[in-house]
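User:
Can I borrow your eye for a moment on a structure tokenisation matter? Would you put together a sequence-and-structure record for a protein of your own picking? Please set it down just below, with no commentary around it:
AI:
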Amino acid sequence: MQNPLGSRVRILLLLLFSLVCNTLLAQENLATRLDNLFARNSELNSRIQVALCVYDLTADSMLYARGERQTMRPASNMKLITAIAALDFLGSDYNFTLKYSLDTARIDSLGVLHDRLYIRGGMNPMISRDDLERIAERVARLGVKEIRHGFCYDNSFKDSKHWGEGWCWDDDSETNPELVPLLYKGTGSFDDALFLAMSHHNVKVIGRSTQGAAPSSANTGFWLATPVSEVLIPMMKQSDNLMAESLFYQMAYREGGNYSGRKEASRVIERLVSRIGLNPDDYYFADGSGVSLYNYASPQLLVSLLKYAYKNKKIYNTLLPSLPKAGEDGTLAKRMNNSSCVGRIQAKTGTVTGASTLSGYATTANGHRLCFSIMCQGQQKAKIARDFQDQICAELVRPQQPAHDILY
């Protein structure tokens, strides 16, 4: 008489054996296809450096590695490093802030505030005209008709450096945004915009703006808060450098307090690198956006961080919606169009002179989730590297060859 339990165990073992065989075959197929792709582009690869790492998150196994430990300039793939480290350190519910306060005891019967309005910048890059109008409206609602001694700005949130380490002096202001604690529409023109907002609500401002911290007597305060998820969208989709640097400095402030900068933010990233089993001394993190030519990372590092994010669902669920989708939006909107990659590749692009990168997630035709990093260096034109990256992505998502039937 046949044992039903034994039969079920045998079936489960056969299914497991089949799954392992199919996974190994799929790995072999992808590795062969990628090797063939590199061989067909041997002339290109003799002129530029290309390093690649691909990991199957579904099967929890390495699929392909080629020069994965080479350190290169990550360009805007540095934003991935910044985002994952920040979401891990600050939390996915973190808010960028701006605080304003005043001493209501110094408002007289005529509505004159015999003091200053105190503003503490938190390097919130999303402050808009509507936000400043909201500040002016609330001040007016407190009965203030005149601010006798102007505004007082607290800029202690970060260090005094207005540009990142290793930034090129001849880049434009969009590439090299001014890094100040008080931002308005991505610029440092906060003061003029706030004066204008006050006038719209019939609040007269007298006196020059000064710098300093709010005294303890300024006990009536309000906060403007922006969720980190809102900052990530332009940071990743449009590769906005200011958004990335603002997030970088949030880590610096949380790590070191007032007047902190690159050193403190990098320390946070380096701790995470150590926790995922890599040596932080092998890399260099000069800024949060990838503008700096001093940054050095590797495909191994990026894939390890993408794996870490995937396994930490709060990080992954906040990060993933911000990544550009091939052929659909962001910096990948015009890449891999009319191909099997459309919607299956979600990745961060990166470009600085002589370097081009692409790292993120892919979904294969058989439903496996992959993470990957492609780093190219030494090409004179970015399109050369991008075209090769797109060919690699096509191999990542294309249908696997069918596994051979296994007879029992």
In short: Confidence is low (pLDDT under 50) at residues 401-408.
